[in-house]
Design brief:
Blueprint lengths: L2 E3 L11 E2 H4 L3 E2 L11 H4 L1 E10 L7 E10 L9 E9 L8 E9 L5 E2 L3 E2 L6 E2 L5 E12 L4 E11 L5 E12 L4 E2 L4 E2 L15 E2 L6 E8 L4 E9 L4 E6 L15 E8 L2 E7 L5 E5 L9 E2 L17 E5 L2 E6 L16 E6 L12 E4 L12 E6 L2 E7 L8 E8 L4 E5 L8 E2 L9 E4 L2 E6 L2 E6 L5 E5 L14 E9 L6 E8 L2 E7 L4 E7 L4 E9 L6 E8 L3 E6 L2 E5 L14 E4 L8 E9 L5 H7 L2 E5 L23 E3 L3 E3 L7 E4 L5 E5 L14 E8 L7 E8 L2 E7 L5 E6 L4 E5 L10 E8 L3 E6 L2 E6 L13 E4 L8 E9 L5 H8 L2
Pfam family, one: Laminin_G_3
InterPro entries: ConA-like_dom_sf, LamG-like, Laminin_G, Sialidase_sf
Keywords: Disulfide bond, Signal
């Protein structure tokens, strides 16, 4: 899931695991989505993905993943990101951890090394006479020494794993040798005991001092900041601040897991509390103002933000807090510990700016908690939030949300107006356009579209003073649009900015081919489709400009042309960005959903913009029962193989899901975005490859919902295929006359046009149609599944399941079946 937020807010390459290999399935740039905008003042892009998933054979889980940077040691002198995690053996004991492992990325999070256990870090006898282990560690880079400090606490346990005293503790990583210190050490300080787990320190780069928040007195809420020096080997106590006054419940978790940062010359501290999480600040890090409850700027409490840690992301132009809270989407999540939210904090009042709040790590498929998390500024353009899915052995995964502050959606124009002369920019950037000549209200791919019919029909989107529509000689960008025309014989501009002195444009050529071009004046670069798309059908077109690697042109999700070399030059121009053009070369047809980005869209984002809600190929390299493996295009949403469902290598294309018994199914989740729900009037389509030679019992191929509200694709007991929409007391359905339980692969396409009816295609042939719909609501809060958690499970193979947010045409159903 890649989504956007309006922010009114010397590692061996052989060890790397490319994410697109580890998570080889496809899916959504989730509908939750597509909000966006440029850099810190007006928006940022959030890209959450899984970098590890339990393979179904592990009898443990990784947790508490947190990270540090090593400046200049990665690819192209980028920072290396090093993350540590703790091992929980899932033996029903709370907060009992064993190994510590680490993983490294040298390409800003695109790929990661496998978790590597640090073998010398083990349980040992502590001064209180109990065995214990370094737990809840936080790695931080210490610039003065060039080392990474791993700060946490040594938790002691009795023979029954009951928790006893804790000691602040630490370890050291030397990036020059790639070695960890011989053992973890206790921090020698006057109060001896202290809760320092999951606490983020502040490293003063001017002095090299370590300011470390420690909860020093169990059960009283006493939180203090220790100042220590570090010589590259040992951490030495120097002084301690006054106590941060905490008016909370003073329960056993009050004042723990603090996070410290500096912003604008002041220090800011988070404090976990049993009833209300709190924030505090100090002018010098020594004397602290009393901690205050987490509130919105209007003085209302941030409901449900309690008993869970909070951490900072500090930007040059803003102080941001990542936290959890109660919301309509997480009533079923333990302590509301998912999703993770982020908002800007007013540094004067310590209150959150509600209008800046965004979801930076969404709920997972299995509604697991994400509350033990970490934050890190990697570069001025990139911050990350890290966590582990924490619910059971399956799933257990490590999630990294990358926050790209400089990547955003510059403008989004649905062109779905039904009247008027204004094309509204829904991105939040405020770049509304002025419509000249073009007629609103035409039937579009997703609602209304704008009709262009005569010379000069166009939309003027202006030339923003901030230059956000100009990309100079080096700035990457992408432009996306839905278009429909049957006209040939003349050039037709879809999107254009500039002239022959400097410009970029996306257009139809006279022969109907599509061209994406960057014009520098005397030279230019372009890519052109080999085929004509002026065929009277809707097409999704994307031009992506990577100013180093070349241009790409996508049509309907497929890469149809690309260049690998660039002449290069500036394309900036004072002329306005236009949809269509104010000349005779305007498009004669329909345009909808135009978007402009200041970065290169990848193939998965292109697929999502083209209307594919989910696509599951089941080609993951790992086989086995119970594996978290049916991942989607986002590298975030995924499928859980449950009750014996397994991956088979004998798919239609690569792997497939093998269902062979009652209640076997793949759980695909129910995104908070509602991406898999289609209400009372939204069109959609569902496709899949299916193979069985077993008849006599019915079985769900794909299903979402129950008898109160659902949609489903099923093979009946006589081998026929049925697609239906269930509204509770009524339903609409369409069914094939022929049976297909013949041991052969068959492609099924089920199409729901909520106005004209249901259609069912098998192997590209229309085998059933229902044009008289009763209608009703099919949205529900149940998971989308392949197979079903009931006796109605098919016996066979299922592959290449896809869900679309529009009604496929007959031509499209045929084309998909013939791929």
């Amino acid at each position: 899931m890649i989504f956007y937020v309006n922010a009114l807010y010397s590692i061996s390459k052989e060890l790397m695991i490319p994410l697109k290999q580890a998570f080889s399935c496809l899916m959504l740039v989730c509908l939750m989505a597509a909000l966006a905008l440029p850099a810190a003042a007006s928006g940022y892009r959030v890209d959450p993905k899984r970098i590890y998933a339990n393979d179904g054979t592990n009898d443990f889980w990784w947790s508490h993943t947190r990270c540090a940077t090593l400046p200049g040691q990665g690819q192209d002198s980028a920072p290396v990101i090093l993350c540590t995690a703790s091992k929980d053996l899932n033996d029903n004991h709370s907060d009992v951890f064993f190994d510590i492992a680490y993983t490294i990325s040298s390409d800003l999070g695109d790929s990661w090394t496998p978790y590597t256990v640090i073998p010398q870090y083990n349980w040992r006898m502590l001064p209180n006479g109990y065995m214990g282990m370094l737990i809840d560690p936080v790695p931080v880079y210490h610039a003065a020494s060039g080392k990474i400090l791993l700060l946490g606490m040594a938790q002691s346990y009795d023979a029954n794993y009951a928790k006893k005293q804790t000691y602040p503790a630490y370890a050291v990583y030397d990036p020059t040798t790639g070695a960890w210190s011989a053992d973890w050490q206790l921090f020698d300080w006057p109060q001896v005991f202290g809760h320092a787990g999951s606490s983020y320190p502040y490293i003063d780069e001017r002095t090299g001092k370590v300011l470390w928040p420690i909860h020093s007195i169990s059960g009283s809420g006493a939180l203090q900041v220790v100042t220590a020096s570090f010589d590259g080997t040992s951490l030495t106590y120097e002084s301690i601040s006054g106590t941060v006054s905490n008016t909370g419940s003073h329960g056993n978790r009050s004042g723990i897991e603090a996070s410290l940062t500096e912003f604008g010359g002041e220090y800011f501290l988070t404090s976990r509390d049993d009833t209300n999480n709190r924030l505090a600040k100090s002018a010098n890090g020594i004397v602290w103002q009393p901690a205050v409850d987490l509130q919105w700027e209007d003085g209302t409490p941030v409901s449900g933000s309690m008993n869970t840690q909070m951490h900072w992301i500090t930007r040059p132009d803003g102080l941001y807090l990542v936290y959890t809270r109660q919301d309509a989407v997480n009533s079923d999540v333990f302590r509301y510990r998912s999703p993770l939210w982020m908002a800007e904090v007013n540094p004067v009042t310590l209150k959150l700016k509600k209008e800046t709040e965004r979801n930076v790590m969404p709920n997972t498929t299995d509604r697991a908690q994400l509350g033990n998390f970490g934050t890190l500024n990697v570069t001025p353009e990139l911050s990350i939030v890290t966590s582990n899915e924490w619910k059971s052995l399956q799933p257990n995964s490590t999630i990294v949300s990358r926050i790209w502050w400089n990547q955003s959606l510059l403008g989004s124009w649905p062109l779905n107006e039904t009247a008027g002369t204004t094309a509204t920019d829904t991105s939040g950037a405020g770049h509304d356009g002025s419509i000249t000549g073009a007629v609103p209200g035409a039937e579009g791919r997703f609602g209304a579209a704008l009709s262009f019919a005569k010379a000069g029909d166009h939309i003027n989107l202006g030339h923003p003073a901030d230059g956000s529509f100009d990309f100079g000689a080096t700035q990457d960008f992408s432009v996306s649009a839905w278009v429909k025309t049957s006209h040939t014989g003349s050039i037709q501009y879809i999107v254009n900015k500039g002239d022959t002195n400097g410009s970029f444009w996306l257009r139809f050529e006279a022969d109907g081919a599509l061209r994406f071009l960057l014009d520098y004046g005397s030279t230019f670069d372009y890519v052109k489709s080999p085929a004509s798309f002026a065929d009277g059908k809707w097409h999704h077109v994307v031009g992506a400009a990577d100013r180093d690697a070349g241009l790409r042109l996508y049509v309907d999700g497929a890469l149809v042309a690309q260049s690998s070399t660039m002449l290069g030059g500036s394309i900036s121009s004072a002329l306005p960005l236009t949809i269509g053009t104010d000349s005779a070369l305007t498009l004669k047809g329909l345009i909808a959903e135009v978007k402009l980005y200041n970065y290169v869209l990848d193939e998965f984002e292109v697929l999502g913009l083209g209307g594919v809600v989910g696509s599951w190929s089941f080609d993951e390299p790992t086989a086995g029962s119970g594996i978290v493996t049916a991942n989607d295009v986002s590298d975030y949403e995924y499928g859980m193989l449950l009750n014996g469902a397994a991956r088979s290598p004998a798919g239609k294309s690569g792997g497939a899901v093998q269902l062979s018994g009652s209640r076997q199914f793949v759980k695909l989740g129910d995104p908070d975005s509602g991406a898999y729900d289609f209400g009372t009037d939204r069109d959609f389509s569902l496709t899949a490859w299916f193979k069985t030679d077993v008849s006599g019992t019915s079985g769900y191929i794909v299903n979402k919902g129950d008898t109160n509200a659902s949609y489903a694709l099923r093979i009946e007991s006589n081998g026929t295929i049925r697609f239906w929409l269930d509204y509770g007391s009524t339903a609409d359905a369409v069914q094939s006359a022929q049976a297909y339980a013949d041991g052969k692969w068959h492609h099924i396409a089920a199409v729901a046009d909520r106005d004209t009816g249901l259609k069912l295609y098998v192997d590209g042939i229309l085998v059933g149609e229902n044009t008289s719909l009763l209608g009703g609501d099919i949205s529900n809060k149940l998971s989308l599944t392949v197979g079903h958690n009931s006796p109605s499970t098919p016996n066979g193979l299922i592959d290449e399941v896809q869900l679309y947010r529009y009604a496929l045409t007959e031509e499209e159903a045929v084309e998909i079946a013939q791929r």
